[in-house]
Write a structure and sequence with these properties.
Layout (H helix, E strand, L loop, with lengths): L6 H10 L1 H5 L8 H13 L4 H21 L3 H7 L5 H14 L7 H8 L3 H12 L3 H20 L3 H7 L3
Length: 163
């Protein structure tokens, strides 16, 4: 399952309840609560009429538990308007929009408002991958998705995702 983090929800949670989201819970504390919220959201996929009503609240709850979890500090930075995490998120959005398209590092660095070396440093710190490794991982995930969900063979998929 993939759930994109919503920076507006993160900002709202952090600004609306800074004392609650300033400290990260001890490891494992909110893990079961997070799993429960995700399970409830997934179960709603079979009931679209209820999903339309309940999705926003569950997504907000999931964001809350993520902010309270081990990666809370990094996620919290996504809610800050000009944080490095938010700037790198702009570059990641470019990579995710068209994973098959070649992208120049200069374009990504410009989108993040950083120089090349600063961009590489912050990108790796936030994603634990270089931009090229990240793009390759995106391509691999897209290839896997196309093969599994659409039953396509490997050869056409390889070209479709940009390998």
């Amino acid at each position: 399952m993939l759930l994109e983090l919503d920076t507006a929800v993160i900002t709202d949670l952090v600004m609306g309840s800074p004392e609650c989201h300033a400290l990260v819970s001890s490891p494992g504390t909110g893990d079961e609560d997070l799993r429960d919220a995700v399970r409830r959201l997934v179960r709603l996929l079979d009931r679209p009429e209820s999903l339309a009503v309940l999705k926003a609240g569950l997504v907000r709850e999931i964001h809350h538990w993520l902010l309270r979890g081990r990666q809370g500090a990094v996620i919290r930075h996504l809610g800050l308007p000009d944080s490095h995490a938010r700037r790198i998120a702009r570059a990641v959005a470019i990579l995710r929009a068209e994973p098959a398209r070649p992208v120049r590092i200069e374009q990504l660095a410009a989108a993040a408002g950083m120089g090349r070396s600063a961009f590489h440093l912050h990108f790796r710190a936030i994603t634990s991958l270089s931009p090229l490794q990240f793009q390759k991982a995106l391509r691999l995930m897209e290839a896997r998705r196309l093969i599994l969900s659409q039953g396509k063979s490997v050869s056409p998929v390889v070209f479709e995702v940009g390998y």
